[in-house]
Amino acid sequence: MAKLFKSKSREAMSRREFMMSSFLLGAGVAAPTVLSLLQHRRATAQDMPMRAAMSNAGLAVTWCAQGKDTAEMWGRFLGVEIVWYDGALDNNVQRSAVDTIASQSWDFVAIQPFSIGTLVEPVSSIIAAGIPFVDMDTLLAPLDQLDDLGVLSFIAPDNVFM
Fold it and tell me: What pTM was estimated for this model as a whole?
């Protein structure tokens, strides 16, 4: 029986092969749990639909358009209706969109501001209404002010490292 598990070759596994094997093993172990969670959420979402408003700098930017597609895909998986507001790479357009978002009721709001400071007033209204707000990629306001505003989370890549 021990012979079945012995390798015919004594070559060491490279770090890359080890990492890939570990990833695949982990994904295989986690997949049933993740899939059952998604299936459960989709089944219960019919009774408890969620609505989220999202906006980014502008859909003319490829990675912003891909982000929208990804958010909508996960929304379908999790039973969340994503209503998208295109920032159109224009502060005034995005501000108008966020003013519209602030006038409605949402389960959560996630926005990538086109520039720092332009959306503080409508986002403050969103947060004051008890709607969780997530700031993505660009700071809504200077970093030291985010906690005071009540921003739930700030999500951003390391643009310097990239």
Answer: 0.71
pLDDT for residue 105: 96
Closest CA to 96 of 80, 74, 114: 114
pLDDT at 9 over 90: no
CA 35/CA 69 separation, integer angstroms:
20
Q: What is the mean pLDDT of residues 40-52?
A: 75
Burial of residue 97 (CB within 10 Å: 0-12, 13-18, 19+) is buried
Read off φ and ψ for residue 57, nearest 5 degrees: -55, -45
Looking at domain 49-162, its CATH architecture is: 3-Layer(aba) Sandwich (3.40)
Match 């596994």 to its residue by tokens: 13
**Which pLDDT score is estimated for 148?**
87
Contact 57, 114 (CB under 8 A): yes
Sketch the domain layout of the chain as residue ranges.
15-48, 49-162
